[in-house]
């Protein structure tokens, strides 16, 4: 991947802000989507669709349900 | 009308239209005779014979929070904006969720979403669709989102009857309150159908004006040179309430929603029945339902869409069902035709006319057509008399659906 972890985090922050209204600054690696950011499963689908466009990485449904934290998504996109 | 029947009152108004983003700005524009019809510049305009429309004065996506707006079809955005205005205008009534209902309709539903989602699906695959595609395109979506927003549990409905949809919604809401299912119902219509396919399809039906050199003059109900309707967009929503509930909370009462009448032409899928039998029946039933006489009706906000076939038939029917005395106007001369939204915004205008005792003039009439016996308000606005008067809103739809709602001054 060409993008650094910091670049991916910023991109993800922008996507999550666009979809949920949560400030991008609150999107930090340790945050849980459900427990900390209050993001529901359909919003996660929206985020995954937008992330595919932004980073060119397909996130299959069976993988998506395992991505619990922002860090999980960062790792998935980087690998 | 039985003496002990529940009476329904109007306590809140909301609208977003081609001439204003709320009721106040819209009503001022109508009284000033301003047209909201303008040349459009979308990329599809070169492929259709109609190059203008009544686009919304205020983009609803700019009014709503971004995360909310992106999950809503434009018809749902309009509906939520107007519903929130109406709800605040009514003083945000305290009502138990199981006594609160919603009836909000559109003629076509989320067609912009349907078409753009189809493009996404074809070009990029199913998994690039928003998970909200279905609730964006379903025609009950506007009602459902308003119901969620307000926590309504008494029933959330969407009556669909093309351009009569908004008026039918208000009638259905009145019946919900009268039958004891709800104390408060938010009702009206919304539409966001300014898209190349819709314009092409209505043009194919030879129903639209093609006065491309004069967009603001294109919607000209009852004028001899009228050549079809002008497509508009937006929403009109009202808060209906049982009189008892409204009085108990000290609400401001705009008007009584006194009666509703329905009929079906059973004549032709798009053409009006030339004798106006169906619309006479709807108006007569509405007056009976309101328990008033034709002479009590001083104003009619007509359906009159500026089509050669429909406008004169309607006012000839008004003369037969109500009389030649009411002051008749078509606000579509300024807003264009909002299809399923028409009954919503035009009910708002009928109620404002009763409240302020003034009828906005129909614009663009330079040569009144033959065969018209009623008083068409044009040239200048006209005052309505003081006292206990009623006004009527007519809405008719493709399919032969007719709906008439009667409002009475409070």
From TrEMBL, chain A:
PROSITE patterns: CARRIER. The modification O-(pantetheine 4'-phosphoryl)serine is found at residue 41. One of its GO terms (cellular component) is membrane. Residues 6-79 form the Carrier domain. Pfam families: PP-binding. Keywords: Cytoplasm, Fatty acid biosynthesis, Fatty acid metabolism, Lipid biosynthesis, Lipid metabolism, Phosphopantetheine, Phosphoprotein. Pathway: Lipid metabolism; fatty acid biosynthesis. HAMAP family: Acyl_carrier (MF_01217). This is Acyl carrier protein. The lineage of its organism: Bacteria, Bacillati, Actinomycetota, Actinomycetes, Streptosporangiales.
UniProtKB/TrEMBL annotation, chain B:
This is 3-oxoacyl-[acyl-carrier-protein] synthase 2. It comes from Nonomuraea rhodomycinica. Pathway: Lipid metabolism; fatty acid biosynthesis. Gene3D superfamilies: 3.40.47.10. Keywords: Acyltransferase, Fatty acid biosynthesis, Fatty acid metabolism, Lipid biosynthesis, Lipid metabolism, Transferase. NCBIfam families: fabF (TIGR03150), PRK07314.1 (NF005589). The active site is at 163 (for beta-ketoacyl synthase activity). GO terms for cellular component: cytosol. SMART domains: PKS_KS (SM00825).
